[in-house]
Amino acid sequence: MIVRKIILFFATGAGVGLLPGPKGTYGTAVGLLLYWAVHGLSPLHFFVFTLTFIFLAVWAAGLAEAIFQQADSQKIVIDEIAGYLVTMSFVPFRWEYALVGFVAFRLFDILKPFPISLLERRVKGGWGVVMDDVLAGIFANLVLQVIRHWT
Predict the structure, then answer these.
(1) Rounded percentage of the chain residues whose pLDDT exceeds 90
(2) What is the pLDDT of residue 1?
(3) Residue 93 pLDDT more than 90?
(4) CA dihedral 99, 134, 123, 21 (to 10 degrees)
(5) What value, to the nearest 5°, has the Cα angle with vertex 26 and ends 127 and 2?
(6) I need a labelling partner for 30 at 20 to 30 A (CA). Which of 7, 16, 36, 71 fits?
(7) pTM value?
(8) How far apart are CA 21 and CA 146, in angstroms?
């Protein structure tokens, strides 16, 4: 019972995935708060933290799918948290970047341009739940890197 609660705590982003409304946006907001909490890490340590978080997300999402008895349930938002952390990898902390990253990630996550849409359709289970958001995070990160380069 306690393991089930721990899985759901992580998978639902401390419960925000259970709230009514735009669950993915709520999950991304949790990602922004987590990013703010750990932004003092060196770029290498932040990257290792993010990779570790991705594996935690895959594990929790896969188990939460079984608990909810639904593939890629909207209640599972740990994937948005992981995707946002990827978005902010190797980006220095500035609130402007954090907010632009938030918007860019949400756009890629919602619109799912190729190859994100292909990945979402082809990969199942915890990996499928998380990896399309990781790819959306990579795209959003590239947008941030271009903005950083030109400003």
Answers:
(1) 96
(2) 85
(3) yes
(4) -20
(5) 65
(6) 71
(7) 0.96
(8) 32
